Amino acid sequence: MNPLAIALGAVISTLIGSVFFLVRPAKSYRMLWLCIFAAWIGFAAGHFLAEWSIFQFWTAGALNLGGALPGTLVALLLLRVLALKEWR
Protein backbone atom coordinates (compact mmCIF):
# COMPACT_ATOMS: atom_id res chain seq x y z
CA MET A 1 0.00 0.00 0.00
CA ASN A 2 1.44 3.35 -1.01
CA PRO A 3 1.67 6.48 1.20
CA LEU A 4 -1.14 8.25 -0.65
CA ALA A 5 -3.54 5.40 0.10
CA ILE A 6 -2.54 5.54 3.77
CA ALA A 7 -3.12 9.30 3.84
CA LEU A 8 -6.52 8.97 2.14
CA GLY A 9 -7.50 6.25 4.59
CA ALA A 10 -6.44 8.43 7.53
CA VAL A 11 -8.47 11.37 6.22
CA ILE A 12 -11.58 9.28 5.57
CA SER A 13 -11.46 7.54 8.93
CA THR A 14 -10.78 10.81 10.77
CA LEU A 15 -13.82 12.40 9.13
CA ILE A 16 -16.02 9.43 10.04
CA GLY A 17 -14.80 9.48 13.65
CA SER A 18 -15.37 13.24 13.91
CA VAL A 19 -18.87 13.04 12.45
CA PHE A 20 -19.69 10.19 14.85
CA PHE A 21 -18.62 12.40 17.74
CA LEU A 22 -20.67 15.34 16.46
CA VAL A 23 -23.79 13.19 16.04
CA ARG A 24 -23.37 11.54 19.46
CA PRO A 25 -21.62 14.20 21.57
CA ALA A 26 -20.08 13.32 24.92
CA LYS A 27 -19.24 15.31 28.02
CA SER A 28 -15.50 15.50 27.36
CA TYR A 29 -13.43 16.12 24.29
CA ARG A 30 -11.30 13.15 25.27
CA MET A 31 -13.98 11.06 23.60
CA LEU A 32 -13.30 12.89 20.33
CA TRP A 33 -9.75 11.55 20.29
CA LEU A 34 -11.00 8.09 21.24
CA CYS A 35 -13.51 8.21 18.38
CA ILE A 36 -10.80 9.17 15.91
CA PHE A 37 -8.44 6.47 17.20
CA ALA A 38 -11.19 3.82 17.09
CA ALA A 39 -12.04 4.91 13.55
CA TRP A 40 -8.40 4.52 12.48
CA ILE A 41 -8.14 1.05 14.04
CA GLY A 42 -11.48 -0.08 12.61
CA PHE A 43 -10.65 1.28 9.16
CA ALA A 44 -7.31 -0.53 9.05
CA ALA A 45 -8.76 -3.75 10.46
CA GLY A 46 -11.65 -3.72 8.00
CA HIS A 47 -9.36 -3.00 5.06
CA PHE A 48 -6.86 -5.73 5.93
CA LEU A 49 -9.59 -8.25 6.74
CA ALA A 50 -11.23 -7.59 3.38
CA GLU A 51 -7.86 -7.88 1.62
CA TRP A 52 -7.11 -11.13 3.43
CA SER A 53 -10.46 -12.64 2.49
CA ILE A 54 -10.15 -11.42 -1.15
CA PHE A 55 -13.33 -9.35 -0.79
CA GLN A 56 -13.24 -6.69 -3.52
CA PHE A 57 -16.40 -4.61 -3.34
CA TRP A 58 -15.66 -0.91 -3.45
CA THR A 59 -12.06 0.06 -4.03
CA ALA A 60 -10.34 3.41 -4.31
CA GLY A 61 -6.90 2.65 -5.65
CA ALA A 62 -5.20 0.42 -3.11
CA LEU A 63 -7.89 0.99 -0.47
CA ASN A 64 -10.65 -1.55 -0.04
CA LEU A 65 -13.44 0.73 1.14
CA GLY A 66 -16.04 -2.04 0.96
CA GLY A 67 -14.44 -3.64 4.00
CA ALA A 68 -12.91 -0.58 5.64
CA LEU A 69 -16.08 1.48 6.11
CA PRO A 70 -18.07 -1.27 7.87
CA GLY A 71 -14.99 -1.96 9.99
CA THR A 72 -14.92 1.68 11.02
CA LEU A 73 -18.59 1.69 11.96
CA VAL A 74 -18.26 -1.52 13.96
CA ALA A 75 -15.29 -0.09 15.88
CA LEU A 76 -17.16 3.14 16.65
CA LEU A 77 -20.27 1.30 17.80
CA LEU A 78 -18.11 -0.96 19.96
CA LEU A 79 -16.49 2.13 21.49
CA ARG A 80 -19.94 3.57 22.14
CA VAL A 81 -21.03 0.43 23.96
CA LEU A 82 -17.84 -0.01 25.96
CA ALA A 83 -17.59 3.66 26.99
CA LEU A 84 -21.27 4.08 27.76
CA LYS A 85 -20.58 5.77 31.10
CA GLU A 86 -18.56 8.51 29.39
CA TRP A 87 -21.34 9.32 26.91
CA ARG A 88 -23.95 10.16 29.56
Q: How would you describe this protein?
A:
The chain has helices at 3-23, 30-52, 65-82, 84-87; strands at residues 59-60, 63-64. The protein has one domain (3-87). β1 (59-60) and β2 form a beta hairpin. The mean pLDDT is 88. It has a two-stranded antiparallel ribbon with strand order 1-2. The chain is built from four helices and two strands. It has 88 residues and is mainly α. α1 (3-23) packs parallel to α3 and α2 (30-52) packs across α3.
Helicity range of the residues?
over 70%
Structural class: mainly alpha
For the biggest β-sheet, the strand order reads 1-2
Instruction: Quickly count the helices.
Output: 4
Please describe the biggest sheet, giving its number of strands, its sense, and whether it closes into a barrel.
2 strands, antiparallel
Percentage of residues in strands = under 5%
- Spatial gap, N to C terminus: 39 Å
What is the residue-mean pLDDT, rounded to a whole number?
88
Overall number of strands: 2
> Which spans have pLDDT < 50 for at least 5 consecutive residues?
none
Provide the domain count.
1
Q: Tell me, briefly, the overall form.
A: elongated
Radius of gyration: 13 Å
Element string (H = helix, E = strand) = HHEEHH
